Amino acid sequence: MLNKNIKTHLKVVAVSFAAFLAFQEPLLAEEKPAQQALKLSGVASPKQMAFTGFANEVESLLPAVVNISVVQEVSNSAATNQVITDELPKIFEDFKNQAEGQRKINQKKKVTSDGSGFLISKDGFIVTNNHLVDDASEITASLNDGTKYKAKVVGIDKKTDLALLKIESDKEFKFVKFGDSSKSRIGDWVIVIGNPYGFSGSVSVGIVSAKGRDIANGQSNEFIQTDAAINKGNSGGPMFNLKGEVIGVSTAIISPSGGNVGIGFATPSSIAAQIIKQLKDQGEVTRGWLGVSVQDVTPEIAESMKMEKVRGAFVVEVTRDGPAEKAGILPTDIIIKFDDQDINEMKMLPKTVAKTPIGKDSKITIIRRGKVKILNIKVSKLKDEETKPVEVKQPTAKKPMFKPTAQILGIGLVEFSEKLKKEKNVNIDGLFVADVAIKSEAAEKGVLIGDIILSANQVPIKSLEDLRKAVEESKKTTKKLFLFIKRANANYAIVLATN
């Protein structure tokens, strides 16, 4: 009886094991090509990563990651003091004032800061962040094997915070290549290697948390967000995919504490690779330029202009003698297409133009007074001017300077006489805002005394009668009046209800 039970049990085990093998056979067969690829490339497959970790991959990448040590001359007013004193409560005001006085001592001293970088060629070209090496008097690159080299700056690009360095040696360096960040997906694994807080060769792992992040730091690119640990000292270091390709350059973190909280950002390789190539080839980055300042098209602006949907870049200013002015582009035009690229958002325009070859004859599509127009434009090289959104100044209370001759939509207005033009030192046509009713929509929207109304619904305004006509026409159609206003050296747009 016992023998019979044992035989039965053995049969069950044999059948179960056979079923297990049958279930695993497709998976094992699927892994064979990956194993063959592993032998050829030395890169672990994602499935192997799940079981063996990231050790094999990291081991092959570490020799290409470098620590960057920088010596800079700075004033005695250290950044740490700035943070401490600015956060002091009011009861420590005397101490704060004393500290502020100490800042004014303009002595210079040498300080050392650390960051990260990575080799992209066997002859010693290194990618890092510009903010790390900016104004450096001495730069040292330390490799994973402990060897150190003096590095020189080949080129920098402040807009993307990227820099290219070069070290010299008789030996060939191990290096890594850029991958295509546009192919990475939210949820993909990433490996970050760098020098956080001086701990060289530190590795952290996470995922792509988001793509196309705009962190409003003035840079002209969008970021890859990750939950992989990025800390002070990781700046300029590489973010790898599981193929061992660089898909990002660690650049910034968001952290109330100063340490990693799982929100880090990297400049995508789709941008970094192009910038680094230009720095390597010509020592600088050239970008296309139109000579316009733009802002987002708001739903109110789109409605007042009878647009079917909110899209495009609203032209606020046009640079004198720039490509846009020569092409016939006017303030209040809405750019909806550049060559074959639809401009659905304002930020798409500078990105598209920046990539356009200098001197290229392009087509630009605009909306003006309800009609679509196509203009020819030749892209120039970006200099000090920059296409950027316009910041509208916050309203401040002012007393009336002139007695208004008419009140329209809560705005007290005066026509621009030659005397007034001379007094205000301006030579433009429009209506001068002499007063604003306190409880009016115009006041709520930020119209100020001293503003100059240049146009209404994209039609130039030279008299009070011009504005009255525009108001009456708006009442018959959209019931929205689109005003374009000049304030000091900036322009901005508002929309007021006419009903």
Account of the protein in words:
- The chain has 499 residues and is an alpha+beta fold.
- It folds into four domains: 102 residues, Trypsin-like serine proteases (Thrombin, subunit H, Beta Barrel); 102 residues, Thrombin, subunit H (Beta Barrel), CATH 2.40.10.10; 94 residues, Pdz3 Domain (Roll), CATH 2.30.42.10; 92 residues, Pdz3 Domain (Roll).
- 27% of the residues lie in helices and 32% in strands.
- It has a seven-stranded antiparallel beta sheet. Strands 22, 23, 24, 25, 26, 27 and 28 form a seven-stranded antiparallel beta sheet that branches. Strands 8-9-10-13-12-11 form a six-stranded antiparallel barrel.
- A hairpin with a 5-residue loop joins strand 4 and strand 5.
- The longest helix has 40 residues.
- The chain is elongated and about 80 Å long.
